[in-house]
Amino acid sequence: MQKNILVKALSNPLALAGFIIIMVMFLLAMLAPWIAPYDPDAFDVKAILLSPSWQHWMGTDGLGRDVFSRMLFGGRISLLVGLVAVGISTAIGIVLGALAGYYRGWVDTVIMRLVDIMLSIPSFFLILAVIAFLTPSIINIMIVIGLTSWMGVTRLVRAEFLSLSNREFVLASRTLGAKDMRLIFIHLLPNSLTPIIVSAVLGVAGAVLLESGLSFLGLGVQAPQASWGNILTDGKEYIQFAWWLSLYPGMAILLTVLGYNLLGEGLRDALDPRSQSS
Amino acid sequence: MLKYSIKRVLWMIPMLIGISLISFFIMHLAPGDITNNEAAFNPKASEESRQKLRELYNLDKPIIVQYGLWLKRMVQFDFGNSFATHQKPVFLGTTDTDGNYTKGMIEEALPITLMINLLGLAITLTLAIPLGILAARKYQRWQDKSITLFNFIGFSIPGFWLSLLLMYWLGVANNWLPISGLHSLNYENLSTWDQLKDSISHLIMPVIIPSVTGLAGITLFVKNGMLDVLNQDYITTARAKGLGEHTVVYTHALRNALLPLITIIGLSIPGLIGGSVIAETIFAIPGMGKLFYDAVLMRDFPVVMGVLTIGSALTLLGNLLADIAYALADPRVRRGVARG
């Protein structure tokens, strides 16, 4: 069943394009140590701010480091942060959404009010405030993005649970004496999985954008560790002399986020025959 | 209507308390107490300034008392004074014993951010509504498909990257537009007309870039709303009566399709306020976003907490206005027949 859905989604050319983009990005990131022509952290005082050439495909930065090599290693960070952050937010969302949708009553009220409150705090402010009180590091970035973006999944899982628990098969199972845990894990959760997957794929797109924004501001991945966002920080610094420092990392972010968005929307269309959004 | 509004306003109180709890919790995230944290990041933090922090947040008292005292100051809009910028008051201005008035930091920054975001929102709506209608009327034709593709790119493009590219193209390579600040250095010496031109040229990029990146979401929303409405029975009736396509789309359909847009605009406020951090930092605009960013970098905690709280309160206020506007526009809501 799940497999058919993937096949159906990938028959949509836009979704297929998204899938291919993401696969290529992952392949490049995983093979980074073998593909990268230079050490991403090696300074070279004789090669400062060189424009793109056969030696340096994407030029060099202000410390003479090879931008192409840094892009490859930066890709690892961006992809990892996106996946882990969404893993955290999806896990929180599933647990809270399942609790709210299954038990209803005051549990539902408390969780949904918490969602309302979290949604009314500008999330970028919230993330920056947390980082101000902690230290910026890759682990903290992933946790903070995860902890501030679970509200959508929670609402989604709750809505699925609410509508599913009135369906015959769930009522039947309950009448036969199924315990809460069995109902949740055998009946409700597996039947809510598809919208969760769609929202997670779209969530990665948002997390990659967020991480690059934070790193660009100097509050995400810290130098000398490369990330697409912090290469762009250099791009801003040297905007008068070195366009290549701004162009390539931005394109990589755009392509990756586009890939996840295309795949997510393609999956949504494939999973929901009524959906008209494309 | 009045009853609905009162209920809606009272609803904000528990929300504000919730927000204050979360802000308070964040402040206590730091390992040890925040004075350690300040010392760790800012070697210049003196014992004196750490003592000030302890006093400001009553760190020597039990945590419940700390929260109570903090909440009491919040209610009075007192966010204390900034550490980093010569003790400027964080939110509202104060008059000292000599009668000298010092403007509050948020008081100065907020109008700038509001102006930029409202201008941007106006541009977004003027472009997004016609585009959304076009996409719905030409559904699955080339017009719709190009708008869809444009939307995907709009959703995916990092705003700060677009800003950098345009800064390079319009500001550095061609020198058509200034790339930072709200005014030129010689602003004071210009004639009124030139001052206006100067201000506008400084605002073009900071206003247009966020509105372009926000365009995708609103366009998609208008399109889906239109598609839904155009399939309704009353539209079929209107067409069957022999009304012109123009009347059907713009008089009958558009009004109903645009109603939910009020809520979407309300919901987009936190994104707009939060998004101002990156835009204002890039273009050196002294608004809320830049204020917040600088405060985070300098670990200026009173300012961080002040902007966080005021930003959230504004979001609540925006949602309140959106809900009341929706109730005014749609009688079903205020009579409690249907919601959303």
Concise synopsis of the structure shown:
The complex is a heterodimer of chains A (278) and B (340). Chain A is mainly alpha-helical.
Structure description:
The complex is a heterodimer of chains A (278) and B (340). Chain A has 278 residues and is mainly α. Helices cover 73% and strands 0% of the residues of chain A. Chain A contains twelve helices and no strands. Chain A has helices at residues 2-10, 13-30, 32-35, 67-103, 105-120, 123-133, 138-147, 151-164, 168-175, 180-216, 228-237, 244-271. The longest helix of chain A is centred in the first third of the chain and has 37 residues, at 67-103. Chain A is elongated, with a radius of gyration of 22 Å. Chain A starts with a helix and ends in a 7-residue tail after the last helix. Chain B has 340 residues and is mostly helical. Chain B is 73% helix and 1% strand. Chain B contains 14 helices and two strands. Chain B is globular and about 80 Å long. The two termini of chain B are 16 Å apart. At the A-B interface, α5, α6, α10, α11 and α12 of A face α1, α6, α7, α8 and α11 of B.
Give the largest interface pair and sizes.
Answer: A-B, 49 and 57 residues
| Rough outline of chain B | globular
From the N-terminal CA to the C-terminal CA of chain A, the straight-line distance is 22 Å
Low-confidence stretches of chain A: none
Strand percentage of chain B lies at under 5%
Question: What's the end-to-end separation of chain B, in Å?
Answer: 16 Å
The number of distinct helices of chain B, counting runs of at least 4 residues, comes to: 14
Round the mean pLDDT of chain A to the nearest integer and report it: 84
Per the principal axes of the C-alpha atoms, what is the gross shape of chain A? elongated
* Strand coverage percent of chain A: under 5%
Tell me the major beta sheet of chain B.
2 strands, antiparallel
Assign the structural class of chain A, choosing from mainly alpha, mainly beta, alpha/beta, alpha+beta, or little secondary structure: mainly alpha
| Strand runs of chain A, count | 0
Mean pLDDT of chain B: 79
